[in-house]
Design brief:
about 120 residues, mainly beta, 7-stranded mixed beta sheet, 11 strands, about 65% strand, elongated
Length: about 120
């Protein structure tokens, strides 16, 4: 099995910063990509940022220039540095990982796993 554990959410004032972390553990044989999604109340889950194992990154237009995603391969951990936060960034943030894994006698190629979510609230 593969587990994703997120941390770093909380309450911050507009213009402030937060750093989210997500550590992947379990029977991981390789990480293809990790990323962050978010879901605000009564809205669909949306992509925030993705980073591929080669270092290529992709951001939603709404966060470009404010958020930075990074991957620490040796620790299977992805970070999301969020600066200049706005009230519209308020949402539950979910970590996603596409990994190769082996467990229960079976090889899983590029399987997607999700974290439990962490709340980010931007409010004065």
């Amino acid at each position: 099995q593969v587990q994703l554990v997120e941390s770093g959410g909380g309450l911050v004032q507009p213009g402030g910063s937060l750093r989210l972390s997500c550590a992947a553990s379990g029977s991981i044989k390789g990480i293809n990509a990790m990323g962050w999604y978010r879901q605000a109340p009564e809205k669909q889950r949306e992509l925030v940022a993705t980073i591929f194992s080669g270092g290529i990154t992709n951001y939603a237009d709404s966060v470009k220039g404010r958020f930075t995603i990074s991957l620490e391969n040796g620790k299977n951990t992805v970070y999301l540095q969020m600066n200049s936060l706005k009230p519209e960034d308020t949402a539950v943030y979910y970590c996603n990982a596409n990994v190769n894994a082996f467990y229960s006698g079976r090889y899983y190629y590029n399987n997607a796993y999700w974290g439990q979510g962490t709340q980010v609230t931007v409010s004065s």
